[in-house]
Amino acid sequence: MDPVGVAAALDAGPGRAWQSKCPWGAPNTTSISCSLADVMSEQLAKELQLEEENAAFPEVVAVAEGPFITGENVDTSSDLMLAQMLQMEFDREYDAQLRREERKINGDSKVSISFENYRKVHPYDSDSSEDEVDWQDTRHDPYRADKPTTTPRRGFIGKGKDITTKHDEVVCGRKNTARMENFAPEFQVGDGIGMDLKLSNQVFNALKQHAYSEERRSARLHEKKEHSTAEKAVDPKTRLLLYKMVNAGMLETITGCISTGKESVVFHAYGGKSATEDKLKIPPECAIKVFKTTLNEFKNRDKYIKDDYRFKDRFSKLNPRKIIRMWAEKEMHNLTRMQNAGIPCPQVVILKKHVLVMSFIGQEQVPAPKLKDVTLSSEDMKKAYYQILNMMQQLYKECNLVHADLSEYNMLWHDGKVWLIDVSQSVEPTHPHGLEFLFRDCRNVSQFFQKGGVAEALNERELFNAVSGLNITADNEVDFQAEIEALEKMNEDHVQNHGKKLSMLSTDGDPPIYDE
């Protein structure tokens, strides 16, 4: 190489080579020459913008618009599409006409009508123009109450003749209507605000007092249900008594309900093997009679106990819950008398408050049928009649009791004989209505066996004389009952004068003799 050329290459070559290979060197940019008209062109600017967007977002896919029915994308070659479009336009015009009719009829009236059920297009399907009023704005919402306007602190609104004070009748009436919403939910007040109801202070105070009374009454009813013995169910206190009996070994298990009545519920239970009480004999099967604590059934039956001389001093009209316990105690004493006299009846095991445990008349959880439900032969029916006649005489003479509710519903047929149950209402003959109860028992027994075909059955008057030992001779029933009432009146006067029962005057335990 020529020395001059080498020197020139050494002077120019290494710098140029270093600049092309150095990463910090200035890049070689090729400038595109364009004219001033191209720079000012708007079409070129749009193309450059699209290129930049496509380079920045290459994966964005344009979403196709839905098949909206517009004038641009409608396929006018389809007759079905044209028919649907025409029908839609017709429905919209029809609905617009209905709205105009609503506004014309309603006007400024407080009670408005609506043609909503007659519209062709559903409101949310309608794409009406913006100048049309929305259907929800024209329709009164009954569930959105219009609250009454509050009175400012100065106590009046308006000026001059239009002044309205807080004592205005209309304003107070609307406020009272709004206050009804604060009543208990159970008290139905209706939509008084929507109807623009105006209540006077007198009416509002009466409704307020009635709402409070109803709230207290419902609370009492709820408490009564929680603390009362209902059908086939017991309250918590009674359940606790039954649990204690089971835990003490007195009862092994309680199987379930076997009978329900007006005053009590009867459960079946198996007797325990051991008992904590001394000299307490528990039968294998027991009947638990739980007297209802609702007090409703005892309001009209207090005459059986308040006039009974055994419980007259303990009777309290003001404490009805004690009456229920006395009712259970009375049945226990009556059953004890009948057991001592040898009358077939349940054997008393124990009494705990209003729960009476007795022996079960039946076998293997199956109670003995009532006399009205069993079909007896003529001989068994005749045998049952004479047995009942004998038991009524024993009950009156030996036990000094009158059943007071004797009928085929309170007599069971078990082991070929009749058993008497439900003696809680039984009274002594010295009771002011004892003879009336006895005559009623005789009527029930006589009618049942006469219908059963027992030819030897006496009528009610003959049966009454046979049981009581009295010789009342009367031609008809009216005179017979009149003499019975006269004897009861005489007995009541004698008891009031002497202060003692007539039965205490007799030494042999016979019932008192009613004679002049």
Structure description:
Residues 136-147 have a biased composition (Basic and acidic residues). It is an enzyme of class 2 (transferase). InterPro entries: Kinase-like_dom_sf, Prot_kinase_dom, RIO-type_Ser/Thr_kinase, RIO_dom, RIO_kinase, RIO_kinase_CS, Ser/Thr_kinase_Rio3. This protein is α+β, with helices and mostly antiparallel strands. Among the domains are: 156-225, no CATH class; 233-367, 2-Layer Sandwich (Phosphorylase Kinase, domain 1); 369-501, Transferase(Phosphotransferase) domain 1 (Transferase(Phosphotransferase), domain 1, Orthogonal Bundle). 41% of the residues lie in helices and 10% in strands. The chain has helices at 3-21, 36-39, 42-56, 79-106, 135-138, 169-179, 201-226, 236-247, 303-306, 320-341, 378-397, 434-451, 460-468, 477-498, and strands spanning 156-157, 164-165, 251-260, 264-271, 285-291, 348-352, 355-359, 362-363, 366-367, 411-414, 417-420. Strands 3-4-5-7-6 form a 5-stranded antiparallel β-sheet, sandwiched between helices. Strands 1-2 form a two-stranded antiparallel sheet. α12 packs antiparallel against α14. The longest helix is centred in the first third of the chain and has 28 residues, at 79-106. The protein starts with a helix and ends in an 18-residue tail after the last helix.
